[in-house]
Amino acid sequence: MAPAISADSQNVTDFVVKKGNGIKGLAESGLQSVPKQYIQPLEEQMDMQNIVTHEFIPVIDMSKGDDLKLICDAAEKWGFFQVINHGVPIEVLENVKVATNSFFGLPAEEKLKYTKENSVTNNVRYGTSFVPEAETSLEWKDYLSLFYTSEKEASAFWPKECKEQALEYMKRSELLITRILEALMKGLNVTNIDAPTSTMLMGSKRINLNYYPKCPNPELTVGVGRHSDISTITVLLQDDIGGLYVRGIDGKGWIHVPPITGSLVINVGDALQIISNGRYKSIEHRVAANGSTNRISVPIFVNPRPKDSIGPLPELLEMGEKPIYKQVLYSDYAKHFFNKAHDGKKTIDFANI
Ligand SMILES: CC(C)(COP(=O)(O)OP(=O)(O)OC[C@H]1O[C@@H](n2cnc3c(N)ncnc32)[C@H](O)[C@@H]1OP(=O)(O)O)[C@@H](O)C(=O)NCCC(=O)NCCSC(=O)/C=C/c1ccc(O)cc1
Ligand SMILES: O=C(O)CCC(=O)C(=O)O
Ligand SMILES: [Fe+2]
Question: Boundaries of each Fe2OG dioxygenase domain copy (predicted)?
Answer without folding.
Answer: 196-304
